[in-house]
Amino acid sequence: MSTRPTPEQLAAVEAFAVGGHVVLQAGAGSGKTTTLVQMARRKRRPGQYLVFNRSIADGARRRFPRHVGADTAHSLAYQAVGWRYAERLAMPCMSSAKLAAVLGPTGTRWPKCCRCSGPGVESP
């Protein structure tokens, strides 16, 4: 199903086509992805669509032309360096309580922060 682009979408696509900087700021379901797809089809230059989860990335790969990648931040990080740690990443997870017990006290002074209710606490 194809819908007509709004005047705002047309303006964004045209600005992108002539090399302008474009920022799309709009609410959920307002057509940001549709606008980006229109931009990608209009100007065939490499691009990257960054999303928050795999299902959105999978759907975007079906919508965007081949010259635009669609990935999560985690998948890009894994492609860049994560593969070096594949063995570690496959290991069982350790709870934060167990990790704290393994690492033990370090003598680190923890600074007071906006989320803390009191002054900094010093480890023994």
Automatic annotation (TrEMBL):
Keywords: ATP-binding, Helicase, Hydrolase, Nucleotide-binding
GO molecular function: 3'-5' DNA helicase activity; ATP binding; DNA binding; hydrolase activity
Biological process, per Gene Ontology: double-strand break repair via homologous recombination; replication fork processing
Name of the protein: UvrD/REP helicase N-terminal domain-containing protein
Protein species of origin: Saccharothrix variisporea
Domain UvrD-like helicase ATP-binding: 6-39
InterPro entries with a match to the protein in the record: DNA_helicase_UvrD/REP, P-loop_NTPase, UvrD-like_ATP-bd
Superkingdom as given in the UniProt entry: Bacteria
